Amino acid sequence: MELNRELEKLLKKVEKPARYIGExxxxxxxxxxxxxxxxxxxxxxEIGMSYLGLQLLYNILNKExxxxxxxxxxxxxxxxxxxxxxxxxxxxxxxxxxxxxxxxAIRIAHEFNLKxxxxxxxxxxxxxxxxxxxYNYVSVFTDFY
Length: 145
Fold this sequence. Notes:
This protein is of the alpha/beta class. The protein contains 7 helices and 5 strands; from the N terminus they run ααβααβαβαβαβ.
């Protein structure tokens, strides 16, 4: 599946893609925690990260072994291109051949409540029961060169 390529295309359209990828220096990632929550700041990444109170609380909470705290910020205006997609006005396009990739695309679309279209889908015959229960678009074809 070519989800990374699609994400890369999307990030090229925004002014500062680093604010959306979540890989900033000194970020804390925990696989296992009893308590998980998002510390939401009601402004953009740059404003929120410059707020000392956010940094202090984030570090204090993440020092606790059983607590995982993530930071969440408002999207900048340059991400407004995604609004029609998120409002289900237009479908997300996934390019997937294999059945497991098709199922991954469906799972991602359902997690984000997206309308979707799967292109190629040459392995769809292996998962027809799953495909039949979804009300979206599938285009089955192959490329021969």
